[in-house]
């Protein structure tokens, strides 16, 4: 083929790169066949090939998710896990219980063992507000995140404006209290709205006495949704992302963010070993498909 023709095919492939990757790949394949040692053409050919193969794998995974054969359960830490899943897999779903808060493996196991949320404003044994200390360093345990038990009144007395220094020590980014569920030992971010929160987030409800019953109802609905997904699935992926050190400290208690033995023991009994616990940073659609095929076809 004439070198100018190869150049024209290469350049034409580039014009389809953003709008139709399949056409771009087919054109670049022709150019690559004609000029296999051309470094630019070769790199683009491999780039398009890899992207398309990744897309095919994602489509297969999304199909299994849509049928309910596979369930993906983000298990924290915070909403970062859910965001990473969407970025890596193109995957999104209705909110689940661990999407918006600080959940250790212990708290996840606790909710599976006893799937009820019963925080009561009138009963301080069930919940309280907390202060958050990121990049906390313990002499023996190293880096982690710490929550000190506080009270709504104490925090209200401290926070003077939305722009005060270290505001996120006392309220989250959307101006919600850090709320500890004392039974399950998780810290909820959002939903328990402070007076600084906007109308869109709070819907005008800005006091714990009214918010806690709404939070219980919301989390209970998310738990039931999660349990239904797990019940239907032939295989379950529990996906975590830990960016806050090795532990969460709540008051004087340490909860390991790297030890999944308690959670595994719980899940083994409930889901008959038909699950995996994965790091969101390491996952790919192909790896999850391979794991599903290997475990499901045993």
Pick out its properties.
10 helices; 10 strands; 298 residues; Serine Threonine Protein Phosphatase 5, Tetratricopeptide repeat; 18% strand
**Spatial arrangement of strands, main beta sheet:** 2-6-5-3-4-8-9
Tertiary shape = elongated
The proportion of strand residues reads: 15-25%
Tell me the helix content. 40-55%
Q: What is the rounded distance between the termini?
A: 51 Å
User: Roughly what is the average pLDDT, rounded to an integer?
Assistant: 92
Following the backbone from N to C, one meets helices and strands in this order, namely HHHEHEHEEHEEHHEEEHEH
Number of domains: 2
- The gyration radius over C-alpha positions equals 24 Å
- The chain-level structural class is alpha/beta
How would a crystallographer describe the biggest sheet? 7 strands, mixed
Helix tally?
Answer: 10
How many strand elements? 10
State the low-pLDDT regions, or none.
none
């Amino acid at each position: 083929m004439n070198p100018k023709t190869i150049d024209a095919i290469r350049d034409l492939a580039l014009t389809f790169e953003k709008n139709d990757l399949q056409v771009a790949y087919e054109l670049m394949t022709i150019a690559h066949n004609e000029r296999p040692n051309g470094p630019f053409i070769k790199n683009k050919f491999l780039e398009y090939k890899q992207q398309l193969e990744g897309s095919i794998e994602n489509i297969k995974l999304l199909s299994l998710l849509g049928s309910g054969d596979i369930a993906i359960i983000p298990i924290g830490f915070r909403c970062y896990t859910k965001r990473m899943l969407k970025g890596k897999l193109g995957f999104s779903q209705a909110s689940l219980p661990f999407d918006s808060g600080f959940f250790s493996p212990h708290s996840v196991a606790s909710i599976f063992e006893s799937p009820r949320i019963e925080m009561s404003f009138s009963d301080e044994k069930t919940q309280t507000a907390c202060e958050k200390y990121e990049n906390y360093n313990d002499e023996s345990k190293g880096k982690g995140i710490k929550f000190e038990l506080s009270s709504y009144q104490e925090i209200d007395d401290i926070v003077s404006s939305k722009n005060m220094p270290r505001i996120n020590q006392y309220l989250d980014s959307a101006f919600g209290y850090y709320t500890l569920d004392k039974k399950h030992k998780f810290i909820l971010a959002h939903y328990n709205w402070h007076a600084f929160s906007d109308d869109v987030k709070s819907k005008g409800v800005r006091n714990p006495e009214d918010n806690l019953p709404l939070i219980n109802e919301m989390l209970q609905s998310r738990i039931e949704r999660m349990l239904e997904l797990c019940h239907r699935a032939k295989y379950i992926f529990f996906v975590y992302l830990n960016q806050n050190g090795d532990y969460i400290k709540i008051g004087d208690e340490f909860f390991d963010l790297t030890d999944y033995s308690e959670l595994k023991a719980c899940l083994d009994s409930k889901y008959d070993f038909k699950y995996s616990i994965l790091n969101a940073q390491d996952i790919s659609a192909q790896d999850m498909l391979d794991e599903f095929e290997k475990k499901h076809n045993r």
